[in-house]
Amino acid sequence: MTIIGVVPILIGVLTANLALSTMVLLSALSVSFADVGGAYHNRAISMLTAAVFMTVTALVATITGGNPWLVTLVMFAWAFFGSMVGLYGSLPGKVGFSANLVFILVMGQPASIEVAWVRMIAFIIGAAWSMAISLCPWPFRRFLPARQAVGGYYQAGSALLRKVCHIELGQHWNEEVKQERARLREAYDKAHRIVADRRSQGSGAHPFNYLLLMLILRADSIMEAVIALFEELAVSRTYNYHRGEQSAFVMEQCAALLEQLAYAIAGKKHALRPETLEHSLYAIETQEYALRASLPQLEKDYYAFANTRKLEPQPEPQHSLVHEWLSLRLVNTRNLANLLERMSELIRETRDLLMQSDGQEILQGMLQTEATSKSNFSWKALYAVVRERVLLFKDNLTLRSFILRHALRLAAILAVAVAIAKLLNIPDGSWIGMNILFILRPDYGSTRKQTVQRILGTVIGAILAMLLITALHINFLTFPIAALHINFLTFPIAALHINFLIFPVLIVVSFFCFMYQDNNNTLFILLFTTFLIIMFSLVMPGNGLVPFIRIATALVGGSMGILASYLFWPLWEHKRLPQQMGRTILANQTYIASVLAAYIAGGNKKDKLEAVRRASKDAHVQNVNAAAAFQRMLNEQKASENEIERFQMLVTYNQRICDSVTTLAAHISTRPEHGEFHQLERFRQQMKWVLRDVEDATRTGQRISINPPLKEMLREVLVTLRYMLATYPANNQTTGGRDGATSIKRI
């Protein structure tokens, strides 16, 4: 992005044609913003589509920009359809957004039809430049996006582990950890999407795609074990079974292992150091051995206390608490040992995939030509797709559709902004519409948050730009280009006087600006504002009003955007959140039912395990959506304290339910063959009805109470689990260690 942005400016300076190079820059950045990421062919399609629409948009905006009334009407239509195409996914949505941005900026510089054609050529050049830089590794490193996506999945898991290493007792998942979990979900979706795309292209038989699939499946199991491990460690810390620093040490070692695997998968040479990996694995397995070595004594204490209680005519309540504490500690210790063993096994399997000879050849890029399958073109299939798209558009042509309401709101407010800027001849008035486009969101909470971030970033960025421009013009020499004696250039550069230090500054600002584009919106706006103002200082040297105009238009555009979001069809998250919470509870209910069904069925039933996998994916997605919706609600002024507290509890406890069920799912493969598991059938049915009541109450706002049968049923389940533990065969008691791990693991 830095190369794409700075090179057109440099060429414009050298050719004394900064106005036209600005159009090249605008086209290049707009096409880059439409890059959806992922596989190269998907990126190429999205960027080429954006290039076509950007070029047409530039032509229309240039021609209509001189007529205030015409450009207002065209702006309304352009913004409406540019927003409505978001119905069809992220690619059309990005293209529509970029088209609106280009129209707003180009219509502020109207010109004749001859200039419009020249600008079209500039936009084609800018689009070609952007695509060339973005897709240049395609012929040489065809599998780089896939490797980076899968490596990013492992890296996200490592980052999550590092965050939970030192989490405070009593804080199940703090805000930082929740953000890492959201990033892990995004990495999961991206990795799975790329692998699915490649397989859908007919390249699934290629050995590299098989390796990708195996690595992703290993990662899915590792992330499940990570959540289960954290849950078990939280239990051990709550009851003080094990020391917290030991838990943190184990998590750090697991995080280091995942990080090494991530670098190796992404293509970093010599990232997979066998000696370091073996050292970390040895540390984990040593901790596992220590846990298993403590099991015989824990079992001995448990059985001794249980036999003592049998002799008591009336057991005292505190003895029941001690008995429960001993049983929980025994189960927790076994679970931790099993999970550490599972984690080390998965990491070794992943390491073996990467270290084997054919895997190394694949990762080094020494591959044969990728096999592709040709699909037959069908007019009937094309007609069906077009018909489906048309019907979807028609179905949303109603005021009940929040997409239509947002499109109308955006189109109307942008048309008003354009009319004001044109009729009042406001200098750089198109920036008002640009700010509206960036901040206006379908819901009021997100719009308010974007407005604050944009105004804050714009003000600080404008101040920083003024300081940099002042420093460059006062403290450093300005070198005349004529002094360089470049005689072979024929364009008029001799008249230019440029401080060459401005280009290193632009490079640094641009680099950090786009580095934070997806991670810190305020910092991105701050640096992007600085970049734009420095660039305009080259286009319009000596115009010291540019930073102040930038701040003023940000304030005006922000005010208009937030008023439009508040007054016209406002979408309040506190009204939508109950429905989202209902979907989350329903997903958790399905997840619980599928996991318990796998326990009841026993064996390695593929259909049951596949149902668990699908339910797990849906439950985690819905919980992430609920957390995101709750964060948007916090930005709303109309959300009451009671609503915030109620929904915070719902989001938190639903996430804890999901994590607890994930912990149960992690132990499916180690479940014992006990006949008493049929008792869980009643528990599953009871949970189904209870969560259905909770879901209805959440959607409708009614209150419910937990009925006595549920409490009684929970007691019965606890009794069953204790009975299973009490009937543990005496001949399976071992002295710990790997030799007896299998029999201990079964219970």
Automatic annotation (TrEMBL):
It is found in: Cell membrane. Residues 416-563 form the Integral membrane bound transporter domain. Keywords: Cell membrane, Membrane, Transmembrane, Transmembrane helix. It is a multi-pass membrane protein. Its main location: membrane. It comes from the Bacteria. The chain crosses the membrane at residues 6-33, 45-63, 69-88, 117-138, 455-474, 494-516, 523-542, 548-569. Residues 51-289 form the Integral membrane protein YccS N-terminal domain. Belongs to the YccS/YhfK family. This is Integral membrane protein YccS N-terminal domain-containing protein. It comes from Ktedonobacter robiniae. The lineage of its organism: Bacteria, Bacillati, Chloroflexota, Ktedonobacteria, Ktedonobacterales.
